[in-house]
Fold this protein.
Amino acid sequence: MTALCEAALDVLNTPDAVEKSQKTRRYAAAWRKGEIYEIGQVDLPDRPARSERPQLLAPKDMPRRAKAGSPRSKIALLHALAHIELNAIDLAWDVMARKFALGGFTRPKGFYDDWVKVANDEAKHHLMLEERLNALGASYGDLPAHDGLWESSEKTAHDFAARLAIVPMVLEARGLDVTPGMIAIMEKYGDEETARCLQIIHDDEVTHVRAGTRWFEAWCAHHGKDVEETWQDLVRTYFNGQLKRPFNHPSREEAGMIRDWYEPLAEALDSSESVA
Ligand SMILES: [Fe+2]
Ligand SMILES: [Fe+2]
Protein backbone atom coordinates (compact mmCIF):
# COMPACT_ATOMS: atom_id res chain seq x y z
CA MET A 1 0.00 0.00 0.00
CA THR A 2 1.42 3.40 -1.01
CA ALA A 3 -1.58 5.75 -0.62
CA LEU A 4 -2.59 7.36 2.65
CA CYS A 5 -6.31 7.34 1.82
CA GLU A 6 -6.22 3.58 1.38
CA ALA A 7 -4.62 3.25 4.80
CA ALA A 8 -7.37 5.50 6.19
CA LEU A 9 -10.08 3.36 4.60
CA ASP A 10 -8.54 0.18 5.97
CA VAL A 11 -8.43 1.60 9.51
CA LEU A 12 -12.01 2.91 9.31
CA ASN A 13 -13.21 -0.50 8.11
CA THR A 14 -11.43 -2.39 10.91
CA PRO A 15 -13.91 -3.18 13.71
CA ASP A 16 -11.59 -4.51 16.42
CA ALA A 17 -10.29 -1.68 18.63
CA VAL A 18 -6.81 -3.10 19.28
CA GLU A 19 -6.34 -4.03 15.62
CA LYS A 20 -7.53 -0.56 14.57
CA SER A 21 -4.96 1.01 16.91
CA GLN A 22 -2.12 -1.25 15.80
CA LYS A 23 -2.84 -0.69 12.10
CA THR A 24 -2.84 3.06 12.75
CA ARG A 25 0.58 2.87 14.38
CA ARG A 26 1.97 0.80 11.49
CA TYR A 27 0.56 3.11 8.79
CA ALA A 28 1.83 6.19 10.65
CA ALA A 29 5.33 4.68 10.76
CA ALA A 30 5.09 3.85 7.03
CA TRP A 31 4.12 7.48 6.28
CA ARG A 32 7.07 8.79 8.32
CA LYS A 33 9.47 6.45 6.53
CA GLY A 34 8.08 7.43 3.11
CA GLU A 35 6.73 3.94 2.36
CA ILE A 36 3.30 5.52 2.09
CA TYR A 37 4.04 8.60 -0.02
CA GLU A 38 0.94 9.53 -2.02
CA ILE A 39 -2.51 10.67 -0.90
CA GLY A 40 -4.84 8.83 -3.30
CA GLN A 41 -8.65 8.89 -3.28
CA VAL A 42 -11.29 6.68 -1.69
CA ASP A 43 -14.99 6.74 -0.87
CA LEU A 44 -15.42 6.62 2.88
CA PRO A 45 -18.12 4.72 4.79
CA ASP A 46 -20.69 6.86 6.64
CA ARG A 47 -19.70 5.22 9.90
CA PRO A 48 -16.51 3.39 10.89
CA ALA A 49 -16.69 -0.35 11.58
CA ARG A 50 -17.31 -1.31 15.23
CA SER A 51 -17.14 -4.59 17.15
CA GLU A 52 -20.24 -6.04 18.79
CA ARG A 53 -18.75 -4.96 22.10
CA PRO A 54 -19.04 -2.44 23.62
CA GLN A 55 -22.77 -2.11 23.36
CA LEU A 56 -23.53 1.43 22.09
CA LEU A 57 -26.22 3.32 23.99
CA ALA A 58 -27.89 6.70 23.60
CA PRO A 59 -26.41 9.16 26.14
CA LYS A 60 -29.68 9.16 28.15
CA ASP A 61 -29.51 5.36 28.57
CA MET A 62 -25.95 5.32 29.92
CA PRO A 63 -25.69 3.89 33.47
CA ARG A 64 -25.09 6.30 36.34
CA ARG A 65 -21.49 6.74 37.48
CA ALA A 66 -20.36 4.82 40.58
CA LYS A 67 -18.99 6.65 43.64
CA ALA A 68 -15.78 8.60 42.87
CA GLY A 69 -12.63 6.78 43.90
CA SER A 70 -14.17 3.31 43.83
CA PRO A 71 -12.57 0.77 41.46
CA ARG A 72 -15.85 0.62 39.54
CA SER A 73 -15.87 4.35 38.93
CA LYS A 74 -12.23 4.26 37.82
CA ILE A 75 -12.97 1.48 35.33
CA ALA A 76 -16.01 3.43 34.06
CA LEU A 77 -13.90 6.56 33.56
CA LEU A 78 -11.05 4.74 31.79
CA HIS A 79 -13.57 2.88 29.64
CA ALA A 80 -15.29 6.12 28.60
CA LEU A 81 -11.92 7.66 27.75
CA ALA A 82 -10.83 4.59 25.76
CA HIS A 83 -14.06 4.93 23.76
CA ILE A 84 -13.36 8.62 23.06
CA GLU A 85 -9.83 7.76 21.91
CA LEU A 86 -11.12 5.03 19.60
CA ASN A 87 -13.47 7.51 17.95
CA ALA A 88 -10.63 10.02 17.76
CA ILE A 89 -8.54 7.53 15.73
CA ASP A 90 -11.34 7.26 13.17
CA LEU A 91 -11.91 11.03 13.15
CA ALA A 92 -8.24 11.69 12.40
CA TRP A 93 -8.23 9.31 9.42
CA ASP A 94 -11.58 10.64 8.26
CA VAL A 95 -10.42 14.27 8.03
CA MET A 96 -7.43 13.15 5.92
CA ALA A 97 -9.37 10.96 3.48
CA ARG A 98 -12.78 12.63 3.15
CA LYS A 99 -13.58 14.40 -0.11
CA PHE A 100 -14.63 17.75 1.34
CA ALA A 101 -15.65 20.64 -0.90
CA LEU A 102 -12.59 22.81 -0.23
CA GLY A 103 -13.22 25.73 -2.58
CA GLY A 104 -9.71 25.67 -4.03
CA PHE A 105 -7.92 25.07 -0.72
CA THR A 106 -5.57 22.09 -0.96
CA ARG A 107 -4.47 20.10 2.04
CA PRO A 108 -0.65 20.31 1.81
CA LYS A 109 1.82 17.64 2.98
CA GLY A 110 2.13 19.41 6.36
CA PHE A 111 -1.59 18.89 6.94
CA TYR A 112 -1.24 15.13 6.48
CA ASP A 113 1.91 15.07 8.64
CA ASP A 114 -0.05 16.72 11.44
CA TRP A 115 -3.05 14.41 11.18
CA VAL A 116 -1.04 11.23 10.83
CA LYS A 117 0.60 12.24 14.11
CA VAL A 118 -2.84 12.86 15.65
CA ALA A 119 -4.08 9.43 14.52
CA ASN A 120 -0.91 7.81 15.87
CA ASP A 121 -1.28 9.59 19.24
CA GLU A 122 -4.94 8.56 19.55
CA ALA A 123 -4.00 4.94 18.88
CA LYS A 124 -1.27 5.21 21.54
CA HIS A 125 -3.83 6.70 23.96
CA HIS A 126 -6.37 3.96 23.31
CA LEU A 127 -3.78 1.24 23.87
CA MET A 128 -2.47 2.92 27.05
CA LEU A 129 -5.98 3.11 28.49
CA GLU A 130 -6.64 -0.51 27.50
CA GLU A 131 -3.51 -1.44 29.42
CA ARG A 132 -4.74 0.47 32.49
CA LEU A 133 -8.13 -1.26 32.19
CA ASN A 134 -6.37 -4.65 31.94
CA ALA A 135 -4.41 -3.83 35.09
CA LEU A 136 -7.77 -3.39 36.85
CA GLY A 137 -9.06 -6.70 35.50
CA ALA A 138 -11.23 -5.06 32.84
CA SER A 139 -10.98 -4.33 29.15
CA TYR A 140 -12.51 -2.10 26.52
CA GLY A 141 -15.86 -3.57 25.53
CA ASP A 142 -16.88 -4.64 29.05
CA LEU A 143 -19.20 -1.67 29.61
CA PRO A 144 -21.70 0.08 27.38
CA ALA A 145 -20.43 3.17 25.57
CA HIS A 146 -21.86 6.44 24.36
CA ASP A 147 -23.20 6.33 20.80
CA GLY A 148 -23.22 10.09 20.16
CA LEU A 149 -19.56 10.56 19.30
CA TRP A 150 -19.72 10.07 15.56
CA GLU A 151 -22.55 12.60 15.31
CA SER A 152 -20.32 15.66 15.00
CA SER A 153 -18.45 13.92 12.24
CA GLU A 154 -21.65 13.24 10.31
CA LYS A 155 -22.93 16.77 10.84
CA THR A 156 -19.72 18.24 9.42
CA ALA A 157 -19.07 15.64 6.70
CA HIS A 158 -19.74 18.18 3.95
CA ASP A 159 -17.72 21.06 5.43
CA PHE A 160 -13.99 20.98 6.14
CA ALA A 161 -13.93 24.25 8.09
CA ALA A 162 -16.86 23.12 10.25
CA ARG A 163 -15.09 19.81 10.95
CA LEU A 164 -11.98 21.62 12.22
CA ALA A 165 -14.06 24.20 14.10
CA ILE A 166 -15.93 21.47 16.02
CA VAL A 167 -13.71 18.41 16.41
CA PRO A 168 -10.28 19.74 17.43
CA MET A 169 -11.29 23.29 18.39
CA VAL A 170 -14.36 22.48 20.55
CA LEU A 171 -14.31 18.79 21.49
CA GLU A 172 -10.58 18.19 21.88
CA ALA A 173 -10.15 21.61 23.50
CA ARG A 174 -12.76 20.50 26.06
CA GLY A 175 -10.48 17.56 26.80
CA LEU A 176 -7.78 20.04 27.81
CA ASP A 177 -10.22 21.60 30.29
CA VAL A 178 -11.28 18.39 32.01
CA THR A 179 -8.13 16.22 32.05
CA PRO A 180 -6.26 18.10 34.83
CA GLY A 181 -9.19 17.43 37.19
CA MET A 182 -9.05 13.71 36.38
CA ILE A 183 -5.29 13.68 36.99
CA ALA A 184 -5.86 15.28 40.39
CA ILE A 185 -8.45 12.61 41.30
CA MET A 186 -6.08 9.78 40.29
CA GLU A 187 -3.29 11.33 42.37
CA LYS A 188 -5.62 11.76 45.32
CA TYR A 189 -6.40 8.04 45.23
CA GLY A 190 -2.74 7.14 44.82
CA ASP A 191 -2.93 5.90 41.24
CA GLU A 192 0.25 7.49 39.91
CA GLU A 193 0.35 5.27 36.83
CA THR A 194 -3.07 6.37 35.57
CA ALA A 195 -2.23 10.00 36.44
CA ARG A 196 0.92 9.68 34.33
CA CYS A 197 -1.06 8.29 31.35
CA LEU A 198 -3.58 11.09 31.58
CA GLN A 199 -0.78 13.67 31.66
CA ILE A 200 0.69 12.20 28.44
CA ILE A 201 -2.77 12.35 26.86
CA HIS A 202 -3.24 15.98 27.93
CA ASP A 203 0.15 17.03 26.55
CA ASP A 204 -0.46 15.27 23.21
CA GLU A 205 -3.95 16.77 22.96
CA VAL A 206 -2.48 20.28 23.13
CA THR A 207 -0.75 19.49 19.81
CA HIS A 208 -4.02 18.19 18.33
CA VAL A 209 -5.90 21.37 19.16
CA ARG A 210 -2.87 23.26 17.84
CA ALA A 211 -3.16 21.38 14.52
CA GLY A 212 -6.86 22.29 14.41
CA THR A 213 -6.26 26.01 14.91
CA ARG A 214 -3.30 26.03 12.49
CA TRP A 215 -5.26 24.51 9.59
CA PHE A 216 -8.45 26.39 10.39
CA GLU A 217 -6.44 29.61 10.18
CA ALA A 218 -4.85 28.46 6.90
CA TRP A 219 -8.30 27.72 5.46
CA CYS A 220 -9.61 31.15 6.58
CA ALA A 221 -6.53 32.91 5.12
CA HIS A 222 -7.06 31.14 1.79
CA HIS A 223 -10.70 32.26 1.67
CA GLY A 224 -10.02 35.77 3.04
CA LYS A 225 -12.21 35.13 6.09
CA ASP A 226 -11.90 36.47 9.62
CA VAL A 227 -10.87 33.60 11.91
CA GLU A 228 -12.76 34.65 15.04
CA GLU A 229 -16.03 35.44 13.28
CA THR A 230 -15.92 32.35 11.06
CA TRP A 231 -15.16 30.00 13.96
CA GLN A 232 -17.90 31.48 16.14
CA ASP A 233 -20.46 31.22 13.30
CA LEU A 234 -19.56 27.57 12.69
CA VAL A 235 -19.73 26.67 16.39
CA ARG A 236 -23.15 28.36 16.70
CA THR A 237 -24.35 26.39 13.67
CA TYR A 238 -22.90 22.95 14.40
CA PHE A 239 -22.44 22.68 18.16
CA ASN A 240 -25.41 22.13 20.43
CA GLY A 241 -25.41 24.55 23.31
CA GLN A 242 -22.82 26.76 24.97
CA LEU A 243 -19.21 25.92 25.72
CA LYS A 244 -18.69 24.67 29.28
CA ARG A 245 -16.57 26.32 31.95
CA PRO A 246 -14.15 26.24 33.63
CA PHE A 247 -11.62 26.61 30.82
CA ASN A 248 -7.99 25.59 31.02
CA HIS A 249 -6.76 28.90 29.62
CA PRO A 250 -2.99 28.15 29.73
CA SER A 251 -3.32 24.86 27.78
CA ARG A 252 -5.76 26.44 25.35
CA GLU A 253 -3.36 29.33 24.77
CA GLU A 254 -0.52 26.90 24.10
CA ALA A 255 -2.80 25.26 21.53
CA GLY A 256 -3.46 28.56 19.77
CA MET A 257 -7.04 28.97 21.02
CA ILE A 258 -7.57 32.67 21.64
CA ARG A 259 -9.65 33.55 24.69
CA ASP A 260 -11.64 36.18 22.76
CA TRP A 261 -12.81 33.45 20.37
CA TYR A 262 -14.33 31.10 22.92
CA GLU A 263 -15.36 33.31 25.87
CA PRO A 264 -18.36 34.83 24.02
CA LEU A 265 -19.71 31.31 23.33
CA ALA A 266 -19.43 30.11 26.93
CA GLU A 267 -22.13 29.70 29.53
CA ALA A 268 -22.45 32.54 32.05
CA LEU A 269 -19.63 32.82 34.58
CA ASP A 270 -20.28 31.07 37.86
CA SER A 271 -18.39 31.20 41.12
CA SER A 272 -16.09 28.33 40.10
CA GLU A 273 -13.99 30.63 37.96
CA SER A 274 -12.68 34.09 38.62
CA VAL A 275 -12.79 36.71 35.90
CA ALA A 276 -9.10 37.59 36.26
FE1 LIG B 1 -6.35 11.29 22.43
FE1 LIG C 1 -6.79 14.15 20.16
